Amino acid sequence: MTTARRDTYTPETLLSVAVRVFNERGYDGTSMEHLSKAAGISKSSIYHHVSGKEELLRRAVSRALDELFGILDEEQARTGRAVERLEYVVRRMVEVLIAELPYVTLLLRVRGNTVTERWALERRREFDHRVAELLKEAAGDGDVRADVEVRLATRLVFGMINSIVEWYRPDGRGMGAREVADAVVQLAFGGLRKAGAARG
Amino acid sequence: MTTARRDTYTPETLLSVAVRVFNERGYDGTSMEHLSKAAGISKSSIYHHVSGKEELLRRAVSRALDELFGILDEEQARTGRAVERLEYVVRRMVEVLIAELPYVTLLLRVRGNTVTERWALERRREFDHRVAELLKEAAGDGDVRADVEVRLATRLVFGMINSIVEWYRPDGRGMGAREVADAVVQLAFGGLRKAGAARG
DNA sequence: CCTTGTACCGACCGATCGTTCGGTTACTCT
DNA sequence: AGAGTAACCGAACGATCGGTCGGTACAAGG
Question: Are A188 and A131 in contact (CB under 8 A)?
Fold first, then answer.
């Protein structure tokens, strides 16, 4: 609920303020009054730039979804051995999560109360499904363990990746996207236990 | 927003209805009117059983937190090699998450808008810290990989575990807590990649 | 029969919700 | 100079918010 000032607003610059507040207070917990205070303009002025609260949400989750689906179109996500493509997608997901942190954060928190939220949930499921197919293919190649169900493994790896939005903060001297992506790939593919000490 | 009926309500039975609705619509997105419809009694009658909306939240997150902290007091979480205690705690966390699914779900979605929510966040951080110490100890024993920071690894494993509330549904013929716990332990400690195919 | 207490209710409270409306200011284009 | 427009504002809209109030129905206990 800090107060910001800009020369003049565009829908995009207003969106960046709104998304920050949405993430701090939750979408439902944020009133247009909160947004106007944070943006430094009056409540009614917000309607000069966007049609309403829900448009802000729609723009935000669209941006996040576009970036995520974009990963699947990249060269290294489309060619090569499935397990390598999967590793690439996991790494890129982490990078996109961090590059578009507030937008992806908002996307991952939608509950489904409005049409916009339900649409976002559906597109998320579609993305998850695409990645699950990649893992399934890698399992078919014999490159990933067969003793954990593909669907379950996908969900758990997604859980690991998506949790980044709950703690990552880009404050200067912290770690970068690359380091986090390395850690996620090493943990997701290699596990916690020291290499060579297999059991269970 | 289905309509339920009970003989008469106690704070506890009312809580179970409220928590269900909170999880469906989000805490902020749930009005007392929503709760009254779901409980099948009038809005004012709710105040006969509890002091208000926030008490329902407080009761719910307290229950979840008590169960989680209870894990750390159990015999197998206190004695033995650190890596074994850690594995036990991870397994029990999954079991508690599933046994108390709606309550833990609500706990994990708290944002910090009210005093109750901030208190819940603080206790969560304390629990996370206790588990992080366990992982640190296991790293000191040389039982877990040293190439991923302890703090980061803790967060990622928590992310994997906590994500269960986003997809697990206890519908009859699905998998049980035991199976999910097995999968989490295998993935968290052993990773996706087939044993013996180490790299990176 | 009468009191007491539990479980509940409809009507209502002031506050706040997302949104609309009728302006005003200031800059650009001709 | 005058017209047009982008950016903004305060005041107010009906709806809904969490919560309060004075009451009723009813069962139990004496």
Answer: no
